[in-house]
Structure formats: structure tokens, C-alpha cells
């Protein structure tokens, strides 16, 4: 192989390498974008799950367990409000402070 052939070979190799390098850069850029998009979707997904759970809980239990307990005690005829806490309610007496606590 003479020196001219050798230089031709190097030219060919250089061209192939620069095309390969461009491909590598393009793939790397695409991968970075995909990773970023994935991270954004993960955050978005987590937010939506939280929101969904929030809505789900609201529909299934309009009032919480502790509020249900308070309601039960109130229905049994006792005040659960801080104002008259533990005192008996009159037969037809309703208390705005108590209902505020139960249905807030
Ligand atoms: Zn009360």
C-alpha cells in the first residue's frame, strides 16, 4: 500500500467516524429528552394520583372516621362542642357549635 492509498483510507475512516459521531450525538440528545420527559411525566403522574385519591376519599367518606364518631355521640344526645362539651342536649335541641364540628 503506497502513501497515497494510506491517506485515502484515512479520509474514508475520518468520514465514517464523523458520521458515527453525529449519530451518537443525535441518539444522546434524544435519550436526554426522553429521560427529562419521563421525569416530568412521573411528577405529573404522582400529582394526578394524589388528586385522584383525594377525590376518591371525598366520595367514599364524606366525613372522616373521627367526625363519624362525633356524630354518633351527638346523636346519642351529648354536646361534642368545646362550649358545652359532654353536656346533655335537650330532646329537640340542636347545637350549631356541635354541627359545625361534625360537618365542617
Ligand atoms: Zn354543642
Backbone structural class: mainly alpha
Radius of gyration: 36 Å
Give the cofactors and ligands: zinc ion
Return the average pLDDT rounded to an integer. Answer: 87
Q: Could you give a short account of the major beta sheet?
A: none
Contiguous helical run count: 3
Query: Oligomeric state of the chains?
Result: single chain
Beta-strand percent range = under 5%
Low-confidence stretches: none
Helix and strand element order: HHH
Q: Total domains, how many?
A: 2
What form results from the Cα inertia axes?
A: rod-shaped
Number of E-type strands: 0
Fraction of helical residues: over 70%
- Measured distance between first and last alpha carbons: 92 Å
InterPro entries: YabA
GO biological process, one term: negative regulation of DNA replication
Family: Belongs to the YabA family.
Pfam families: YabA
Describe the structure in your own words.
The chain has 104 residues and is an all-alpha fold. The protein folds into two domains: 1-60; 62-104, no CATH class. It contains three helices and no strands. The longest helix has 58 residues, at 3-60. The radius of gyration is 36 Å and the shape is rod-shaped. 4% of the residues are buried. Bound molecules: zinc ion. The site of zinc ion has 7 residues, from helix 3. Belongs to the YabA family. This is Replication initiation control protein YabA. One of its GO terms (molecular function) is zinc ion binding.
